């Protein structure tokens, strides 16, 4: 799971998991899915050994939106594997606690103290707008299962004035109508972790919380302010109806369900932040956007993949008689 997905985890366990969606649900349209499970495309890679081990590419959306389109061979590989590894230990309360701690400003500091006044005021106005709109964004199904707007807003944005600006930026980008409507159902990674626990499989993680968190906190102050400002500009334009984002969660789900690993749209799953690089930016701001993009790619894709690869190799060598199932974000593999 990508690092910026983790501040959402505290809201992922609010409801019990439900039945998977029916075939033909939204997000599956407009691609040539084969009717037979055996002919569906797969995000499963086999490590040839005895017993075999597997890499499975996940996606960070409610599992009910994709489960019916995951081929039987992937589900069978999961069931047959005795050990399941994730990026982080999703069922350990320490994971949530540590991620929450790393998002906080130093003791005694508040956002109002560190942000430029105009950005702080715009941020506060936007969050007031979201809180006002959230009851209208909630679905009858969410309300029927006991998930209410005030509770959900506080679960996502509570204590926002104590958070580091980079995490507030990520939070703002997730507070949209589409994202709010999806809350209450575990994302695919978490669902697999819950299933592994239910089936009494041995589980593990290839990363520490700090390794996912610290790179984001490593952006310098001017880069974070630029990113937060761009995020607010995008959300303000969306509110005003003057901007339509070029990709949506629905696009992402469709491409995943179609098995389209090479699609550009899938790369957006690894970053729940706006695409800061665009031709309308002044030259200096474009340089800042490129620096942020290069830094995050280096720290959260290249270095991270190399680190994870070494740990996977060590596990396979240490336990040659065990079958592993490694479930990692598809866009980071």
UniProtKB/TrEMBL annotation:
Membrane topology, as annotated: Single-pass type I membrane protein
Location in or out of the cell: Cell membrane; Membrane
Domain of life: Eukaryota
Principal location class: membrane
Entry note: cofactor: Divalent metal cations. Mn(2+) or Co(2+).
Broadest EC class assigned to this enzyme: hydrolase
GO CC annotations, alphabetized: plasma membrane
Cofactor(s) demanded: Co(2+); Mn(2+)
Keywords: Cell membrane, Glycoprotein, Hydrolase, Membrane, Metal-binding, Metalloprotease, Protease, Signal, Transmembrane, Transmembrane helix, Wnt signaling pathway
Pfam families: TraB_PrgY_gumN
Regions annotated as coiled coil: none
GO-annotated molecular function: metal ion binding; metalloendopeptidase activity
GO terms classed as biological process: negative regulation of Wnt signaling pathway; proteolysis; Wnt signaling pathway
EC number: 3.4.-.-
InterPro entries according to UniProt: TIKI1/2-like, TraB/PrgY/GumN_fam
Signal sequence bounds: 1-21
Entry-linked CDD domains: Tiki (cd14789)
Family: Belongs to the TIKI family.
Known role: Metalloprotease that acts as a negative regulator of the Wnt signaling pathway by mediating the cleavage of the N-terminal residues of a subset of Wnt proteins. Following cleavage, Wnt proteins become oxidized and form large disulfide-bond oligomers, leading to their inactivation.
Entry protein name: Metalloprotease TIKI
């Amino acid at each position: 799971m990508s690092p910026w997905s983790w501040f959402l985890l505290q809201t992922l366990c609010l409801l019990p998991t439900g039945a998977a969606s029916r075939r033909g649900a939204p997000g599956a349209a407009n691609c040539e899915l084969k009717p037979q499970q055996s002919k569906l495309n797969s995000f499963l890679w086999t490590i040839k050994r005895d017993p075999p081990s597997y890499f499975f590419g996940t996606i960070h959306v409610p599992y009910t939106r994709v489960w019916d389109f995951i081929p039987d061979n992937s589900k069978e590989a999961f069931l047959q594997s005795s050990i399941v590894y994730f990026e982080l230990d999703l069922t350990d309360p320490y994971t949530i606690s540590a991620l929450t701690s790393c998002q906080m400003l130093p003791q005694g500091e508040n956002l109002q103290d560190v942000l430029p006044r105009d950005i702080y005021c715009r941020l506060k106005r936007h969050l007031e707008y979201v809180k006002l709109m959230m009851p209208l964004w909630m679905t009858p199904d969410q309300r029927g299962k006991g998930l209410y707007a005030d509770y959900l807003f506080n679960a996502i944005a509570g204590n926002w004035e104590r958070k580091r600006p980079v995490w507030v930026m990520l939070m703002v980008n997730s507070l949209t109508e589409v994202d709010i409507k999806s809350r209450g159902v575990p994302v695919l990674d978490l669902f697999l972790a819950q299933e592994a626990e239910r089936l009494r499989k041995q589980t593990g993680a290839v990363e520490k919380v700090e390794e996912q968190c610290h790179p984001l906190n490593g952006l310098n102050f001017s880069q974070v302010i630029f990113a937060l400002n761009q995020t607010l500009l995008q959300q303000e334009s969306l509110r005003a109806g003057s901007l339509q984002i070029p990709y949506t969660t629905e696009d992402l789900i469709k491409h995943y369900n179609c098995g389209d690993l090479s699609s550009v749209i899938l790369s957006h799953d690894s970053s729940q932040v706006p695409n800061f690089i665009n031709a309308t930016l002044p030259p200096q701001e474009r340089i800042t956007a490129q620096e942020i993009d290069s830094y995050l790619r280096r720290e959260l894709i290249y270095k991270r993949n190399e680190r994870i690869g070494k740990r996977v190799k060590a596990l396979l060598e240490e336990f040659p008689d065990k079958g592993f199932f490694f479930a990692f974000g598809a866009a980071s593999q």
